[in-house]
Write a structure and sequence with these properties.
With 261 residues, the chain is α/β, with parallel strands linked by helices. It contains 10 helices and 6 strands; from the N terminus they run ααβααβαβαβααββαα. It has a domain of 179 residues: Undecaprenyl pyrophosphate synthetase. Strands 3-4-2-1-5-6 form a 6-stranded parallel β-sheet, with helices on both faces. Helix 2 runs parallel beside helix 9, helix 3 crosses helix 4 and helix 5 runs parallel beside helix 6. It starts with 6 loop residues before the first helix and ends with a helix. Bound molecules: 3-methylbut-3-enyl trihydrogen diphosphate (IPE) (2 copies) and magnesium ion. The site of one 3-methylbut-3-enyl trihydrogen diphosphate has 10 residues, from helix 3.
Length: 261
């Protein structure tokens, strides 16, 4: 999806769009690169942080929409390892927002039975942010309706390197025989294990790149790129992305007749 979707869908109400979804064709795991917060704010003459703040409302809406639709896994890219290269002021504002979100939203996550987990190298995060991440993980550990995975200080290459490091440690310890190493085994060392790979990746703001997100897991994911900026990506936009996803033929390298037989 590189353009807004077909104009006939533009005429439909949110309810009509929802009715067009085929429940058995919904993705089980959706991943999102939430991009364009800064541009959203700049377009309005506001500081970039105002865009990040507004973006949280889009996160909240997407969680509740996933719950309504029965999508059980949502993985969102909130802060990349490369984002540490941003101005200190923006980084601290983002960390402040993260802490605020976690400390105020925990009750609602628990109420909605959403299990929260963070993936990434969390050590460089301020101690208070790490505290809220751990607390939220612990307090939502029993929640069973949906898994919300937030990538924080995350890098897909670092994730693979960390997986290899742990695997080598297990080989050294004699837990794993080197000839057992294959894709299935390596995948068990990724931060996302045991989540299934995402079926659908959405990136907002018109950029058509992966930016070091879930490099391993996206091998056969359907990619949806939309020009909409993340703070504007609301219920309707998500429905359009899901409808676009349902039109895709997922062949996994096979020929279609074999997939559907
Ligand atoms: C995405 O929005 C959020 C983060 C990367 C933290 P940006 O901050 O990248 O917004 P743009 O791309 O500059 O508009
Ligand atoms: C990707 O967005 C990271 C997140 C959304 C958290 P960026 O805005 O940092 O990516 P680039 O720099 O445009 O690739
Ligand atoms: Mg960006």
């Amino acid at each position: 999806m590189t353009h807004r979707l077909a104009s006939n869908l533009d005429q439909l109400s949110e309810q009509e769009l929802t009715a067009k979804l085929e429940p058995e064709l919904l993705p089980k795991h959706v991943a999102v690169i939430m991009d364009g917060n800064g541009r959203w704010a700049e377009l309005r003459g506001l500081p970039r942080i105002a865009g990040h703040r507004e973006g949280i409302n889009s996160v909240r809406e997407m969680i509740s929409q996933c719950l309504e639709l029965g999508i059980q896994a949502l993985t969102i890219y909130a802060f990349s390892q490369e984002n540490w290269n941003r101005p200190t002021q923006e980084i601290s504002a983002l960390m402040g927002l993260l802490e605020h979100y976690l400390s105020t939203e925990r009750a609602s996550l628990i109420e909605q039975r959403v299990r929260f987990q963070a993936i990434g190298r969390l050590e460089p995060l301020p101690r208070s942010a790490q505290h809220w991440v751990r607390t939220t993980e612990q307090e939502t550990a029993h929640c069973d309706r949906m898994v919300l995975t937030v990538a924080l200080s995350y890098s897909g290459r670092a994730e693979i390197a960390d997986a290899v490091k742990e695997l080598v440690a297990d080989v050294r310890a004699g837990v794993i025989q080197p000839d057992r190493i294959d894709e299935t085994l390596l995948q068990q060392y990724l931060y996302t294990h045991p989540l299934p790979d995402p079926d659908l990746l959405i990136r907002t703001s018109g950029e058509t790149r992966i930016s070091n997100f879930l490099l391993w897991q996206l091998a056969y994911t359907e990619l949806c790129f939309t020009p909409t900026l993340w703070p504007d990506f609301r219920r309707r936009e998500f429905l359009l992305a899901l409808l676009e996803y349902q039109k895709r033929e997922r062949r996994f390298g096979r020929v279609l007749s074999v997939v559907s037989s």
